[in-house]
């Protein structure tokens, strides 16, 4: 009976739950799905992490390569994020070149990296205008069930924390780089941004951490990114129903709480990994 | 009050509607030197794979001035499209297509805001049914924390954060938000408040332009 | 979306008119529509309107390695774009036949005529040269795109200025416009395309066909010529046979038209230069006709922002402050942790598949006992963890 109701009138189905201040999967309006984090999931990558928010599963691998810095920024390395939404993760994605959602997500993550200076790009430079690191951050979604951006940013941050780069020196005589794989160092992480996504239902009810179904029925989506100093790094609302400034403020304060939760999680997990060695 | 001396301004702005013969609606919007031209086609027949059974399919294309559209244009397109979708009563034209093509003519800062304003002008020109109007306002926060509205490209470059909001004409609420750089909660709320103030002037402009078009006296 | 086709009645009407030397818009056979050239605030930005046809051209440049075959020459790159704004029939990123023809013609008119001194664009021979890129966007299609595009492209090239460079050994410094004045390109001559439409197997001829006339024409002859009456390219399409006399007559007409248009471009360039020099206003905002009822402008004006602070403070103080204490995450295994619970998690941490990727895990604290509850609203199972695994629930 309930299943039939859900298929025939999905909007009404969700509305009847939201009226009682709860959601079809049993969550409260402001409750995230359980978030599970695993670091060092890929041995061959320089750094990696896997995040699961409910069913949404995203994995990030970081590959570091040596390159020549660009002419206009000779003392900086660069970070290239890429979000991949393969047909594997949901039937809505088709094989072929990245669709709009993947492109927008990649750009969003690139903006976050640039705006917040997660890693100082100067740290990635080995020798000015000669050699620098390029970090390829490949983020792949394995299972898509809404709230992609949150998962992407957590996995990126955890993977960057997990990443280790070998020591590289330039041999003065041969002018060739020498890689010392014995000495590895972690990257210096300056900022810890965490995203929180919200969906707006019927132009007024705000729910946290929407699933695919909730995303498709929502009248607006919001993503707020905050760092550990409670500064906002991004407040992205691509359109949809208009909201009072007060409601936006509620989203921001929820995002601040979420940031603390997630940073604690990342810290603890990274620590447990370190202590086991 | 810290804002006394450098009180924020809106640059000179203006628009022209119905300037192209081919599209069903066309407009340019200029803010200072920033200028965007836009044309709209529709409601027209829609490709089968894009058809939505209960409303019109809206497509937004942003053409940069030189080179091919990049990922950045995709993000802008998404912002403009979803804002227009919220304002348009697209359920009145089910199984049809609306195509909005924006051509960047000159970028001197506040480009996304200009795109939004141009989009609203063109939807008005094409006479498409809308539940409300909207406008875009960009605010930049400079190194001293001062808010600059409608920044030029130079001011954007020097700024610490850049926030663009779309404000609706009904309740002056926030329809769209797109930001760059980091800022505090207070700064965001101030920017929203400034944008709401600025939006009043743009809505007045919309009203005046419609009045001018449909009055007999110049 | 498809282009509206021309009906037979319209077709017959147009052809009849042409036979009687009458055109739809009242022009004479050899008349051009009004040409308006305006320049943007950027160097190398120009819009041209030819009647209702409108194109926008933008020139840009960058330093690139030269082609191996020509190590001392700069590179010219032309890209004509049929924006879907111009006509419902145009689709973005689709190579249509019209697009290819126009691009080829533009290249032959401007690159192969060697109107720009490409050798002066060389910075370091064999290593770095300027690539000049010309983007032409068609904004409104009302026939004769070729002429409009060629006028826009050459005007933009004449208007364009590239940054000054200095060479020290093998290092190249590019100066911003504030540091050193940018330099214009050296333009040898200005080739301009003139299109002739032929009807009824070449018995009737029209200059500057509009879109409707293009739809009923039999053939098209495009002549590119400069004001010195030198022909830069001739292209005949549509499969009509032309007599030698016809071509000669066309070239005579073209030479008149070209000198008129060249004068117009020179005048427009001169006006823009004067406005810039005198510090007056220039750019597209100045070129729109303010007296039209569809045009409205507003002066720059300050905003009243007296109560901004109070509004912002009010909203922030009203909102709930975020709680200081947040739930602690549970570390399920080395390198794996979880925050929040209460929902089914199909990632089966209780199962042994975790072992594969972390072979070094020897000790796992599996605290949870499982309680399975079948939910009634959903078909899936829900795992509820008991007290031990449960941490403080998140607030709100």
From TrEMBL, chain A:
GO terms for cellular component: cytoplasmic exosome (RNase complex); nuclear exosome (RNase complex); nucleolus. One of its GO terms (molecular function) is mRNA 3'-UTR AU-rich region binding. The keyword Cytoplasm applies. Transmembrane segments: none annotated. This is Exosome complex component RRP43. Residues 31-166, 193-256 form the Exoribonuclease phosphorolytic domain. Its main location: cytoplasm. InterPro entries: ExoRNase_PH_dom1 (IPR001247), ExoRNase_PH_dom2 (IPR015847), ExoRNase_PH_dom2_sf (IPR036345), Exosome_comp_Rrp42_subfam (IPR050590), PNPase/RNase_PH_dom_sf (IPR027408), Ribosomal_Su5_D2-typ_SF (IPR020568), Rrp43 (IPR033196). Belongs to the RNase PH family. Keywords: Acetylation, Cytoplasm, Exosome, Nucleus, RNA-binding, rRNA processing.
Automatic annotation (TrEMBL), chain B:
Signal peptide: none annotated. The keyword Nucleotide-binding does not apply. InterPro entries: ExoRNase_PH_dom1 (IPR001247), ExoRNase_PH_dom2 (IPR015847), ExoRNase_PH_dom2_sf (IPR036345), PNPase/RNase_PH_dom_sf (IPR027408), Ribosomal_Su5_D2-typ_SF (IPR020568), RNase_PH (IPR050080). Transmembrane segments: none annotated. Residues 10-129, 134-197 form the Exoribonuclease phosphorolytic domain. One of its GO terms (molecular function) is RNA binding. Its main location: cytoplasm. GO terms for cellular component: cytoplasmic exosome (RNase complex); nuclear exosome (RNase complex); nucleolus. Keywords: Cytoplasm, DNA-binding, Exosome, Nucleus, Phosphoprotein, rRNA processing. One of its GO terms (biological process) is U4 snRNA 3'-end processing. It is found in: Cytoplasm; Nucleus, Nucleolus. Homodimer. Component of the RNA exosome core complex (Exo-9), composed of EXOSC1, EXOSC2, EXOSC3, EXOSC4, EXOSC5, EXOSC6, EXOSC7, EXOSC8 and EXOSC9; within the complex interacts with EXOSC3, EXOSC8, and EXOSC9. The catalytically inactive RNA exosome core complex (Exo-9) associates with the catalytic subunit EXOSC10/RRP6. Exo-9 may associate with DIS3 to form the nucleolar exosome complex, or DIS3L to form the cytoplasmic exosome complex. PANTHER family: EXOSOME COMPLEX COMPONENT, EXOSOME COMPLEX COMPONENT RRP46. Belongs to the RNase PH family. This is Exosome complex component RRP46. It comes from Hemibagrus wyckioides.
From TrEMBL, chain C:
Keywords: Cytoplasm, Exosome, Nucleus, RNA-binding, rRNA processing. One of its GO terms (molecular function) is mRNA 3'-UTR AU-rich region binding. It is found in: Cytoplasm; Nucleus, Nucleolus. Residues 351-376 are annotated as: Disordered. InterPro entries: ExoRNase_PH_dom1, ExoRNase_PH_dom2, ExoRNase_PH_dom2_sf, Exosome_comp_Rrp42_subfam, PNPase/RNase_PH_dom_sf, Ribosomal_Su5_D2-typ_SF, Rrp45. CDD domains: RNase_PH_RRP45. Residues 32-163, 189-255 form the Exoribonuclease phosphorolytic domain. This is Exosome complex component RRP45.
């Amino acid at each position: 009976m309930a299943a039939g109701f859900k298929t025939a009138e999905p909007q009404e189905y969700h509305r009847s739950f939201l009226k009682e201040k709860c959601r079809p999967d049993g969550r409260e309006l402001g409750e995230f799905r359980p978030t599970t984090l695993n670091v060092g999931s890929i041995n061959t990558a320089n750094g990696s992490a896997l995040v699961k928010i409910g069913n949404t599963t995203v994995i990030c691998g970081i590959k570091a390569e040596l390159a020549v810095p660009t002419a206009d920024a000779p003392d900086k390395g660069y970070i290239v994020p890429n979000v991949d939404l393969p047909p594997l993760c949901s039937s809505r994605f088709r094989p072929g070149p990245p669709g709009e959602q993947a492109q927008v997500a990649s750009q969003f993550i690139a903006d976050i990296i640039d705006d917040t200076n997660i890693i100082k790009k100067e740290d990635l430079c080995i020798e000015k205008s000669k050699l620098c690191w390029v970090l390829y951050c490949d983020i792949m979604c394995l299972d898509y069930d809404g709230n992609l951006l949150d998962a992407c940013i957590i996995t990126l941050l955890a993977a960057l924390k997990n990443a280790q780069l070998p020591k590289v020196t330039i041999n003065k005589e041969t002018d060739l780089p020498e890689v010392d794989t014995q000495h590895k160092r972690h990257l210096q992480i300056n900022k810890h941004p965490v995203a929180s996504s919200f969906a707006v239902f019927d132009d007024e009810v705000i729910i946290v951490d929407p699933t695919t179904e909730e995303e498709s029925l929502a009248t607006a989506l919001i993503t707020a990114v905050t760092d550990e100093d409670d500064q906002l790094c991004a407040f992205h609302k691509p359109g949809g129903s208009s909201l009072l400034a007060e409601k936006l403020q509620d989203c921001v304060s929820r995002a601040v709480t979420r940031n603390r939760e997630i940073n604690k999680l990342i810290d603890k997990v990274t620590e447990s990994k370190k202590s086991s060695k | 009050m810290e804002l006394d001396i450098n009180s924020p301004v809106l640059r000179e702005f203006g628009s022209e509607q119905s300037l192209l013969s081919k599209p069903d609606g066309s407009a340019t919007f200029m803010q200072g030197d920033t200028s965007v031209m836009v044309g709209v086609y529709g409601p027209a027949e829609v490709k089968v794979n894009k058809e939505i059974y209960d409303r019109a399919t809206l497509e937004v294309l942003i053409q940069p001035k030189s080179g091919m559209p990049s990922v950045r244009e995709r993000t802008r397109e998404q912002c403009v499209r979803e804002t227009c979708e919220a304002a348009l009563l697209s359920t009145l034209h089910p199984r049809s297509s609306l195509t909005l093509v924006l051509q960047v003519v000159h970028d001197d800062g506040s480009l996304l805001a200009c795109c939004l304003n141009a989009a609203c002008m063109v939807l008005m020109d094409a006479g498409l049914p809308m539940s409300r109007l909207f406008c875009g306002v960009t605010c930049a926060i400079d190194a001293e924390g001062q808010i600059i509205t409608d920044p030029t490209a130079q001011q954007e470059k020097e700024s610490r954060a850049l926030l663009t909001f779309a404000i609706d004409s009904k309740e002056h609420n926030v329809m769209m938000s797109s930001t760059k750089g980091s800022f505090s909660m207070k700064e965001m709320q101030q920017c929203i408040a400034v944008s709401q103030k600025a939006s009043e002037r743009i809505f007045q402009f919309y009203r005046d332009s419609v009045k001018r078009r449909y009055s007999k006296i110049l | 979306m498809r282009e509206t086709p021309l009906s037979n009645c319209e077709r017959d009407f147009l052809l009849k008119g042409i036979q009687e030397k009458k055109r739809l818009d009242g022009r004479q056979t050899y008349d051009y529509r009004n040409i308006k050239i305006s320049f943007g605030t950027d160097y190398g930005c120009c819009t041209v309107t030819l009647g209702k046809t409108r194109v926008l051209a933008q020139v840009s440049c960058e330093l690139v390695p030269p082609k191996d075959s020509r190590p001392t020459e700069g590179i010219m790159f032309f890209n004509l774009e049929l924006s879907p704004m111009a006509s419902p029939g145009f689709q973005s990123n689709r190579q249509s036949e019209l697009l290819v023809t126009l691009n080829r013609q533009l290249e032959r008119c401007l690159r192969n005529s060697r109107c720009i001194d490409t050798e002066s664009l060389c910075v370091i021979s064999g290593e770095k040269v300027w690539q000049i890129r010309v983007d032409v966007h068609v904004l409104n299609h009302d026939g004769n795109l070729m002429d409009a595009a060629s006028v826009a492209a050459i005007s933009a090239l004449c208007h364009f200025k590239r940054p000054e460079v200095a060479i020290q050994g093998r290092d190249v410094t590019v100066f911003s416009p504030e540091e050193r004045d940018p330099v214009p390109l050296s333009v040898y001559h200005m080739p301009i395309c003139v299109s002739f439409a032929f009807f009824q197997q070449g018995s009737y001829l029209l200059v500057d066909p509009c879109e409707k006339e293009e739809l009923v024409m039999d053939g098209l002859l495009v002549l590119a010529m400069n004001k010195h009456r030198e022909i830069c390219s001739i292209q005949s399409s549509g499969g009509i046979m032309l007599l030698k006399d016809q071509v000669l007559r066309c070239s005579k007409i073209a030479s008149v038209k070209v000198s008129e248009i060249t004068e117009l471009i020179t005048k427009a360039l001169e006006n823009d230069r004067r406005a810039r020099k005198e510090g007056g206003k220039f750019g597209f905002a100045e070129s729109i006709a303010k007296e039209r009822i569809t045009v409205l402008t507003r002066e720059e004006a300050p905003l009243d922002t007296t109560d901004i602070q109070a509004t912002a403070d009010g909203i922030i103080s009203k909102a709930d402050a975020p709680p200081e204490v947040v739930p602690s995450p549970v570390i399920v295994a080395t390198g794996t942790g979880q925050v929040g619970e209460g929902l089914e998690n199909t990632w089966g941490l209780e199962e042994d598949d975790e072992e594969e990727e972390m072979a070094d895990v020897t000790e796992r604290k599996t605290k949870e006992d499982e309680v399975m509850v079948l939910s009634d609203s959903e078909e899936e199972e829900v795992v509820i963890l008991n007290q031990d695994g449960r941490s403080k629930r998140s607030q709100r």
